[in-house]
Write a structure and sequence with these properties.
Structural class: alpha+beta
Order of helices and strands: HEHHEEHH
Number of helices: 5
Mean pLDDT: 82
Distance between the termini: 46 Å
Number of strands: 3
Radius of gyration: 17 Å
Strand content: 5-15%
Shape: globular
Length: 87
């Protein structure tokens, strides 16, 4: 799924759609949901499983503000130390 498709999802989606976002097939998505191990928060509505879109986007680090589909990570102390130039 593209970033724009993910951002256009409703508040919750069926488990197959959520699985597609993670690159997980239908059978595996249902198995993970039944085991309580799906990568994002799911809810059970009768016999159906739904994934909470806000949590799906959080896990994938997708926000309306970033353009590449990856969250912006804060620099670690080791990154800060290696970014200084020595003359």
């Amino acid at each position: 799924m593209t970033r724009d498709e993910l951002l256009a999802l409703p508040a919750s989606v069926d488990i197959v759609t959520a699985g597609r976002a993670f690159g997980i097939g239908r059978t595996t998505a249902y198995a993970l949901a039944r085991a309580g191990e799906f990568p994002c928060h799911t809810i059970r509505a009768g016999r159906a499983y739904r994934a909470v879109t806000a949590d799906l986007l959080r896990v994938l680090r997708i926000t309306p503000e970033n353009s590449d589909g990856a969250g912006v990570a804060a620099p670690t102390p080791s990154d800060e130390n290696t970014s200084h130039h020595q003359d």
